[in-house]
Design brief:
222 residues; alpha+beta
């Protein structure tokens, strides 16, 4: 999810795919496209792929090489059946009704946007609930869980007399907390910076992580 997922690289990757799919624009192909149309179509498919990465919790760096900002909208789970199954159905029966493919394309935008709206609603509900409890929290992030939009996760930091803590807890479709809360100490920024200077892999991991925490090893593993 690096340079190949960049908005600036998309036209070049679309050009490569258009050349690979040369049978689409060859004069010998019945009903062939123009080369420009093939290039435009392939670039649109690359941009669609980038969109599908951006709506997940992993996200992708769409502004490389100018910025390594990871854009993640947290709208759908990384493998979302409710997003995928309608696409498979449309692909299976598209020859019977061509408009099914058009509906599938619309679904690729409508469903994530609905998930994005639910995420914003859950985030506002959690922030209001924690504020009503008088807790000093920051960086509240709601993530889609498996079988979202019915299940979500909330992640946030809290300032306590024992230091900064990272909380992780599940949410149901109505925004109510479910299961037990997981609490670990937040990782020290100085520690993260020191590890990032020692290892490229560690730096990439910390750029990817949302709220990294630390957990002491048990005595048997020290």
């Amino acid at each position: 999810r690096g340079i190949t997922h960049s908005l600036f690289f998309a036209p070049l990757l679309g050009l490569v795919l258009a050349l690979v799919g040369c049978s689409l624009w060859r004069a010998q192909t019945p009903g062939h496209w123009r080369f420009a149309k093939t290039w435009l179509f392939m670039t649109a498919m690359v941009l669609l792929h980038i969109w599908l990465d951006c709506i997940t919790t992993y996200g992708t760096m769409i502004f490389v090489p100018f910025s390594h900002l990871r854009v993640r909208l947290n709208a759908v789970f990384i493998i979302d059946l409710f997003l995928t199954l309608p696409l498979l159905l449309a692909f299976w029966r598209w020859r019977d009704r061509w408009w099914r493919m058009l509906l599938a394309l619309v679904w690729l935008f409508v469903y994530p946007l609905a998930g994005l709206s639910l995420n914003a609603w859950h985030t506002a509900q959690v922030e209001a609930r924690l504020a009503a409890q008088g807790r000093d929290v920051r960086q509240v992030t709601v993530l889609p869980d498996a079988f979202a939009p019915f299940f979500w996760r909330v992640l946030y930091e809290e300032e306590t007399p024992h230091g900064m803590l990272v909380h992780l807890q599940g949410l149901d479709a109505l925004g109510r907390f479910r299961a037990e809360e997981s609490v670990i100490p937040a990782a020290s920024p100085r520690l993260l910076d020191a590890l990032a200077r020692q290892s490229v892999a560690a730096r990439a991991f910390f750029d990817f992580a949302l709220l990294p925490g630390t957990r002491p090893l048990p005595p048997s593993r020290r």
